[in-house]
Amino acid sequence: MKKVVIILLLVLPFILIYFISVTGRILEKYSHIYVESLKIQDLEDNDIIPNKPNEIRVGNSKQFKIVIGPELASNPSVLISCYNNDICSYTEENGILTVTALKYGQTTIIVSSVDRTNITASFIVKVIDDVPTGLQFAQKEMTAMPGKTYDITPPSFIPSTTKEQFKGLVWESSDEEIVKIVDANGGRIKALKEGEAIITAKSTFNSEIFATIKVNVTNQKFTDVYFDYYDTSAYVVNDKEFNLYSIIKYSDNFMNQYPEEERTNQYFFKLETNVSGVDVSKLSDGLIVFDDSKSVILIKIGIYMVSDPDSQVDLITIVFNKK
Length: 323
Hints:
Elements: H1 2-31, E1 37-41, E2 54-57, E3 61-69, E4 78-82, E5 88-93, E6 96-101, E7 105-113, E8 120-128, E9 134-136, E10 141-144, E11 149-151, E12 156-158, E13 169-173, E14 179-183, E15 188-191, E16 195-203, E17 210-217, E18 225-227, E19 235-237, E20 241-243, E21 248-250, H2 252-257, H3 260-263, E22 267-271, E23 278-279, E24 287-290, E25 298-305, E26 312-320
Parallel strand pairs: 2-8, 10-17, 19-26
Antiparallel strand pairs: 1-3, 3-6, 4-7, 5-6, 7-8, 9-12, 11-15, 13-16, 14-15, 16-17, 18-21, 20-24, 22-25, 23-24, 25-26
């Protein structure tokens, strides 16, 4: 009997420990309240739309609420990550997420449940700035013809949210003998002779912020239909009747695309200046008839593609000098 009692006393603690362990696991299983949902709200309890950027100005902060459901979840802890920590920083305390804007840009913040990592919520942070940090042209270079004036599309400011008071520009040319700046504030240039020049647009707010574009000045024409005349002076005509088709040329691409009998149907002529002493009733046939009463007549004729009547192909100035 004593042996039985001794054995029971030795075994009983192990049985008790096992029982307590199993009971604890059962209680844990049925008493743990799992996280079922996670969402982000502003401080006025409005839900944050995941794909709508939340704007924060550089140097400022904005607070968000992390809402865990249900409220009595056993483990409401969360993990926070950001796609780009250079754009913004963040801290979290008692369910309040504070985001601080560091520099211009856009990134995404993701909040994940520690209890159930597949439950997440994300939102976009867009950091805006008033002060420009850069300039960028849409293209790196352009082609110009001697004697012609061009308006260069201004470069874009970075960031795009820059206020108007910071958007002033001043334009400069690396070689005024090749490309002259006609409007130092508006980006209008005039090509003078063949060569290359670098046009620089500088911020009037900060001269260290600038963008450049290379201008290639050449007499070569890069259009499908053009006048076979490259001089910057007027084309002189001595006969009363003049056929414009006599000085028309086509690119190889245009000739390959259209057979000869169809080419003249792809464009038309247009009188650019209203003048007297010239009959343009047959202009659609390429024919100009000058009046004997006028010794010199100056007109401009443009060629426009029918598919896009507002796009200029080429221009020429013609002077009638009666024999």
